[in-house]
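Slide 14.
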Amino acid sequence: MGWLHWAQSCAVAGAMALAGMAPAGAADQPRLPAETFFRHPAVLEVKLSPSGRYVGITRVHDNRRAALLVVDLQGSEPAKVVAFYAKQDVVWFDWVSDERLLFRLGKIEPARSTTHLPGLYAVEVAGGKTTELICSEIQTCLQQSDSLRYDHGLLAVPRQQPGVRADEVVVGQLDFQLRRIEPKWLNVQSGLVRKMDMPKPPERVMQWLFDSKGQPRVAMSLYDDEGRGVLHWLAPGAEQWRQLASFKLVDPPFTVMGVSDDGQLYVTEPRGPAREAVLTTFDFTTGKPAERPIVQAPGFDFHGWLMHGDPGHGVLGVSLHADSQVTVWTDPAMKKFQEETDARLPGRVNSITCRRCGAPDMVALVHAYADRDPGRYLLYRADSKRWENVAVVMPGVKAQQMAGVDFQRIKARDGRDLPVWLTLPLGVEPGKPAPAVVLAHGGPWVRNGYWRWEPMAQFLASRGYLVIEPEFRGSQGYGDAHFKAGFKQWGLAMQDDLADALLWARTAGLASDRACVMGASYGGYATAMGLVRHPELFRCGVSWVGVADLMLHLEGGFFVVDDLHGYARRHAYPEMVGDTKKDAAQLIETSPVHQAARIKAPMLLAYGADDVRVPKDHGRRLRDALAKAGNPPEYVEYDNEGHGWQQMGTRLDFAKRVENFLGRHLQAP
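Slide 15: predicted structure.
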């Protein structure tokens, strides 16, 4: 492919050294209100139309409702609202053609996530006519036949090119009885469907991957009752599917990343002592991923996406996250444009999407962001060499008032390499230790840290706290060995990693002897267990929507409703967390509810009354156990909230509770 191997992790140009990350005069700045950090972004998404003539934008109006707008780049008219609802938000959209968009409704949430509702809609750019393609309400679906039932979902939006119908997309219907998703074509104008012409697909296919024409290329059969998956491949022009791999779902040999129009299948495969995922192609001759990697980032798994050119032009590069996002272009014109953009917007990540990429009439959309700046979108037109501002993500956030984010690698007590993200406090003199908050991420099997602006970390830093976010073992993104080192280590080595990150920060002169631990979901569990396992390190703990009763989490409860899939409880959890029969003693020893008498530090607990991921029963059981042990916590249950705070009032109330709680327990010597 001609791509250079990624030999070293990317460093952010112009990143400030640890000793100088507090802006000059920070101590003199007034304390920013919580609204600065926890209000909704003004802009959710910005996307170019297929030809590059239009820009679609989801903009949040009055911090309450997200509307879909379209800007005609060839005209002089202001942005036109094509979809707006009084009680719902446009939470996702995509272009079918220059004449029509698809969108979904839902409700916007904090922390860059959304609550999606069933359903799918199409809207015309010119007339604004909206068509419901897939029902959004079960009762409505049962009473009408104009749109598809709610058991349908969007699978792919083909890119406009010869041989592709301009107004068709790929949808799938879930067959509950046969446990499969059947793809078919949907006309977004008429709402009519037609059968997809392809060889007989494998059984029990629950995941599909399509090329830019909407042709199926990869199918994954899920045998979740057996904990097994099977990958199948359909080459261009082939008359039957080929099996590529059969594997345990918790241990796939490789991961499919994408497919190009020339029949290349791109995959990642773990390699080396740390088993870090590298990007390569699949070698159909050997039946394995190709030996030579395309891109690798030592110290990190490949975590990114392919940069496709216009249909027929193949893959132009890849974008990936190491310690920041970087794009590696194979196309010379795009490589040059990236260099020019980075020179124009230094000290930022400049993520580019384009139409007619690299051509004299290219239209490019640039998302420029940084650790102190949620970002903005800019438009570049190559024919006139003109730059235009499109939108600012959060206008109320001023970069000079925000904290810098740094990435470090330290050694855990057993010698394991431990990635740690730091958000350095404002108003603290360089070289002077600050009170610290160890912020444990949820999941726990996700990569948490990125070089970007994050509301909770920035809010805490604005109050003078050093925010330490370890990527403890069990976190993904840093090699399969680091991920699997967390298996059956809830409350044990995973917990020690949090403590070791704090101890390192103290040795480095960054953290004082005053610290609290915080987190949501698994992070809430780790908060409680931090006070159990390392009481000498933490003065207090803040846990929200946190797992508190491990047995309840792993087995479920007859009177407790949750949304955990049966596969997870049958196959994944026994291997990754613990078997409730074989490992019962360990699970009791690492269950906050059962160890509540060992928690002596103050706790703030918060739960959503409607949470079905970690039901409020976890919070109530821990609250009662702490009270019985003589250490009643501060406790709040928010009505009409789930696994995270959706309502602006909830977010602000919780932020103020956190601020007051930490102030009482961390500010005093």
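Speaker note: The CA atoms of residues 275 and 480 lie 5 Å apart.
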